[in-house]
Amino acid sequence: MQESKGSVEAVVCIPTFRRPEWLARTLTSLAEQVTDFPFAIVVVDNDAANPAGAHFARKFLTTVGLPFLVTTEERQGNCHAINRAFGEATAGFPEAEFLLMIDDDEMAMPGWLAAIVGTARREGADIVGGPVVRQFEVPVSDAVTQHLLFGSIEGSTRAIDQIHGSGNCLIHRRVFAGLASPLFDVRFNFLGGGDMEFFTRCRKAGFKTWWCAEAVIREFVPEERVSARFLMTRSLRTGSINYVIDRIHCTSAIRVIAKNALSLGAGCLRSMALFLRTRRLLPASHPLLVSLGRTLASLGFLPTPYRASN
């Protein structure tokens, strides 16, 4: 860890797993941020057996003059890594008000950090999210670009009910004090969706969320994530995540079962409407597959896309 020259106000957390070349792009974009406040960076490598990301981050951050902390998380799983990152950030920089997160397949656009922290300061927000603009690494069809999985909240800076992803977010320190541990539910370690469940819990707890249109992150989407098979599988997984979150937060199992039944009917109608609008099967399949994913999850079939083999 490198000592700060002033009181750190914000800490940017990056969980990483087997993508040191991509992490390099993420860290470079953070080192180039211009702010009127000191900030720090925390990197947690979730590949303890071969922490190439941690080795690179430590070497790179030593040269850029920012306070930092780099460590590894031995327990495999996305939520374990995120919880470790936020835990290290709050303990290592106890004066920091704002804890942020960016993924290792993303880069922060110029002005990102100043904009998102500025919104949190000005509005007294507990949570702030911002746009994630996708950059496809291979040419893709209109069927891919129109897919709802690549959609995002749009519009001007404003108060909103909830954000759904942690790839571009700011969380005030008081949120961590107000929620029980673990912050990200480890039941979502290999399924994904721990961030959506976390922000659902924040909404239910009454925390104030804002959207900052000026705080832009760019996500790089590789070739293997734009195939029809991948997108259809991810649609099913989205339904599974939605079901598990409902099961956690709804006290009535009967209501959840009824919601599954209604979802199937609504999914069919929405898919037909999408097809009539887009004339493309791939994006039109999303609502129906989400509904099917809910049903499969209720029968005990849960995907584990983030369980890595050694």
Structure description:
The chain is globular. It has helices at residues 20-31, 52-61, 78-92, 112-123, 142-145, 173-178, 194-204, 228-249, 253-278, 281-298; strands at residues 10-16, 39-45, 68-72, 98-102, 106-108, 127-129, 132-136, 158-160, 168-172, 209-211, 217-221. The chain folds into two domains: 10-225, Spore Coat Polysaccharide Biosynthesis Protein SpsA, Chain A (Alpha-Beta Complex); 228-298. The longest helix is centred in the last third of the chain and has 26 residues, at 253-278. Helix 1 (20-31) runs parallel beside helix 2 and helix 9 (253-278) packs antiparallel against helix 10 (281-298). The chain starts with 9 loop residues before the first strand and ends in a 12-residue tail after the last helix. It has 310 residues and is α/β, with parallel strands linked by helices. Helices cover 44% and strands 16% of the residues. It has an eight-stranded mixed beta sheet, with helices on both faces. The protein has a three-stranded mixed beta sheet with strand order 5-11-7. It contains ten helices and eleven strands.
